[in-house]
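User: Rhodanese domain-containing protein, Paracoccus mangrovi:
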Amino acid sequence: MTNGSNDFGVTLPQINFLSRVLDSHKSVESVERKKDIQFDITTRQGNNLRLVCVNEYTCGLAKVLEVLETFPGTNIIYVGGAWNGYTMEAKEYCIKSSIGLFNSSEIIGALFREDYWRYHKRDKEGKPLYSTRSS
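Assistant: Predicted structure for Rhodanese domain-containing protein:
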């Protein structure tokens, strides 16, 4: 474990926040932090997941591909706080690739599901709500 020194510019407070979320999540059996921003998670459902923490106001496909190349085996990309989001292009790519792409308002619900990559909030009519932003 290191102290917030990484090539992605993720600060220690951001990493610590995510660490606390994962440590207290009812669906997380165990979590181990590696390479500063990588979290290897075992869920109570038996999923072994690799989550990578970035801090992107708008996470685009280029950042998704950079994370996947830098951290092989990544299952979830956490983009940061509730004010952070992603492009629809990045989200669609991740859904098709069975990779979760979430901000802090989405990650908690996603970890309860077997098909975590498909998790999304819903509006009053039941339509998907994503934390998308234009690129």
